[in-house]
Fold:
Amino acid sequence: MGTHSMKVFKSMILALSILGLAACSSTGDEEAAAQTADTSGIDATTAAAQRAEAERLAREREAQQRIEQAALNTKVFYFDFDVSEFMASDRDVLAIHGRNMAANSGTRVRLEGHADERGTREYNLALGERRANSIRDYLVVNGASLSQIETVSYGEERPADQGQTEAAYRLNRRVEIK
Amino acid sequence: MKSVFQILLLGLVFARAVSAADLNIEITQGIDNPIPIAIVPFTWEGANAIGEDIAEVVSADLQQVGEFRALGRANMLSMPDEAAEVYFRDWRILAQDYLLIGKINHSPGSQLVQVQYEFFDVTREQKLVGEVLTGSVEQLRDIAHEISNVVYEQVTGNRGAFSTEILYVSAEFISPDLTYYRIEKADYDGHRSQILVESQEPLMSPAWSPDGRQIAYLSFETDLPRIYIQEIGTGERRQITNFPGINSSPVWSPDGTKLAMVLSKDGSPDIYVMDLMTNQLTRLTDHPRVDTEPSWTADSRSVVFTSDRTGQPQIYQVPVTGGPGGFAERLTFDCFYCAKGRFLPDGKNLVHVRRETREDNSYGIAVFNMDSQRVITLTDTSLDESPSVAPNGSMIMFATKVNGRGILDAVSIDGRVKFRLPSAQGDVREPSWSPFLN
Structure:
C-alpha cells in the first residue's frame, strides 16, 4: 500500500511538472510572436497592438488570480470511504494552497481531519489524522514548510452532517483547512 | 455490611455532583425459560414513607440479566414481610421457585433506614439468607442492588454486578457551532447519572481505574486530543500527555500501575505503555500503519490492539515486555473489519466490533472463542461499537444508533438477553463498565 501510494504520488508530481512546462512554453511562443509583429508594423499599429497585448496579459493575470482566489477559498476536501489519500481532482487546488504558503511564510494553517461514523471511534480518529497528513504532505511538496502546519484529527466526533445517509457520510469524510 | 458502609462514604462525596437526566432501561429480548421468582413489595415502618421501591429495583435488576422472571404483584396470594408470615404453598401454587420478602424501618428523626430482607427456596421450603442492611434514604437503591447481588449469587453461583456503575459520553447538539460533550457516570442500569466532565470540545474514551476511584479520558479542550486523569470523588484532574499528534485510548492495566495509550508522535499511531509512577513510556508497536484501541489481558502482561497493517483493521496481541521489536500475533482473520478487541474475564473469549464483508456494511458486536475458533455475533443493529464487559463477564454494554440517535444497549454474552438504556436527550456513546466497586 505504502509503495503503491508513493508511486502514484511521484507520477502525480511528474504530471504536474509537465503541465507547468507546457504552460510556460506556450506563453513564450506567444510573446515571441508579439515581438515579431512589433518590429514589422507602423507606430499606431504597434501602439494598438501593445495595448491589446497589455490588456490580454492583464486579463490573463486576472483570470489566474481568480483561479488562485477560488482555490484559496476552497478549504474543505472530501475523501472516499476508508481512504486516506485526497482526491486526484483536488491536486491543483492544494498545489495553489502550498505555493501560497511558500510565498507567504507568515501563513499558519490548521488541518482538521474527520471520518464518517462507521467503524470504531478510535480507529476513525487515526483515519482522520492520516487524511490530514496526506494533505499536509502535499502542501509541503508544493513549498509549504512543516512549521506552518498543525494537524489535528477529530475522528467521527464532529460530523458536518448528523445524518446516517451516504450523502451525509460523504460530507463527513473531510479535511478542513483553518 | 462493609460494602454498604463504603457506599455511604461514596454517597456523601457524590452528593454535590450535578445530576443529569437518568437513563431508563427497556428489556428488548429475554430467554425462553427464566427462573420464576416472587419479589414481594417491602413494607415501610416508621417515619414518612419516601424513597425507592426496593422490590421494584430488585425485580428490574434480576430481569435485566435475563435469567429471572418476577411474578406480577397483582397475582400474589399474600404479601408477607417476615418469615413467620410465609406460607410456601401460596408460592408453590403460583409455580414460583424463589421468594424474596422484606421491610424497611425508618426511626423517626433518624438519618438512617434499616432494610431487613429474607430469601427463600420455595421448593425446599428453606430460608437461604436473611440480613439487615443499614444506610441513608438516598442509598435505598444501593441497598436494593446489594440484595440483587445476594439473590443472584445464591441462585446462579456467580457474583452479581448490580452494584456496578457505567461511564459514558453524551453529546447534546445545540447548533452547528455548539455541542455540549459530557462524561457521565451512572448506576449500571442508567439511574442516578452525574456529570463528571463537561466541554464544548469533544470528549472520548472514558476508562475506569481498577479501583474505581479514577477515570482517564481524552479531551480536546486545548484544541488537541490529550489524555487526562480525574479523581471521581474530588473532581481533581491532571493532563498526563502532551505529545504531538494523537494522544488517545487510555486504558489502565488490571494491576493499576500502567496506562496503555495511543500516540502518533513518531509519525503514525502506535501503542505505548506509561508507567504511572515514573511517567516512563514504553513503545509496544512500531508500524507505519495505524495501531490503536489497546486493551489489557487479565494478567497485565499483554495488550490486544487494532491494526490495519494488512490493509483493513484486524486484532493483534503483543507482550508488554516485548518492546517495539516484540512479535505482534494476529488474532482475527476471517472478517473484513475486526476492531476494538477485549478479552472476557475468562481470557478465552475475545469481544470485538465486527464487519463480516465489505458488502454487508454492518458493524456488530461479536465474541470470538480462541479455543474453538468459533464466532458468535451478538447484535443485529448495524452501527454497533465500544463494547464494554461487566466485571462478572455476564453482559456486554455497547453503543449503537437507533433512529439517528446514539443509545446504549446491553447483551448477555450468549446473545440471548438484551436490554436498552435510552437517553433522555442527545446522543450517548462509549459505555465503560466499572470494575466491582464493593
Q: What stands out?
A: Residues 140-156 of chain B form the longest helix (17 residues). The interface with chain A takes residues 173, 179, 181, 202, 204-205, 220, 223-225, 245-246, 248-249, 262, 264, 268-269, 288-290, 292-293, 306, 308, 311-313, 337, 339-340, 353, 355, 361, 363, 383, 385-386, 401, 404, 429-430 of chain B (CB under 8 Å).
